[in-house]
Amino acid sequence: MTSLKKRIEIAKESAKITGVKFQNDFKLDELKNLKLVLFVDVLLFIPTHEKAQLFELFYDKLENSGIIFIKDTLKSNSIRFRYTSVEEKIKLKFGVYGENVKAHLHYAGKEEFVEMLTKTGFELIEIAEENHLIYPGIFIIAQK
Which CATH number characterizes residue 89's domain? Predict the structure, then answer.
């Protein structure tokens, strides 16, 4: 099973538990001229090299001046990050995202996101680090 197919199966399993409607009736090679691509709280489950591949893939699928929006957990040395990473490991252990979801956590720091996106060709429009009391996050808006 390819990595993408495996990730789709994991998403379907998680959707059953969370009640989110999962729809995957499109063919990836048919996508083109996208205006916006959202990555919200999913990149932490994807290894770094696969994140870079995803950014390259969707860079090619975006129309000129298309936007990529990222909201994810920010890797850091903070107590907030340590709390969040332990919480996510517990959720995985107890099957919160699905019984068969045995993903590993692959957090990225601000510099890693910047490097992957700029190497792909994106222009960084906005980067905001979330200063919420518990959850460390990053918001990134980048443009083709």
Answer: 3.40.50.150
Helix (H, G, I), strand (E, B) or coil at 82: helix
131 domain-assigned: yes
Tell me the average confidence (pLDDT) per consecutive run of 10 residues in the chain, 144 residues long: 64 72 68 91 88 94 96 88 87 76 82 97 94 80 98
Q: Residue 143 is encoded by which pair of tokens?
A: 């443009």
Q: How far is CA 19 from CA 4, 25, 83, 98, 116, in A?
A: 22, 18, 26, 12, 32
pTM higher than 0.85 for the full model? no
Q: And the tokens for 60? A: 């090619």
Q: The domain containing residue 107 runs over which residues? A: 35-143
Residue at 139 is within a domain: yes
Number of structural domains, the chain?
1
Q: Classify residue 70: in a domain, yes or no.
A: yes
Q: List C-alpha distances in Å: 106 to 10, 35, 85.
A: 16, 27, 10
Number of residues written out for the chain: 144
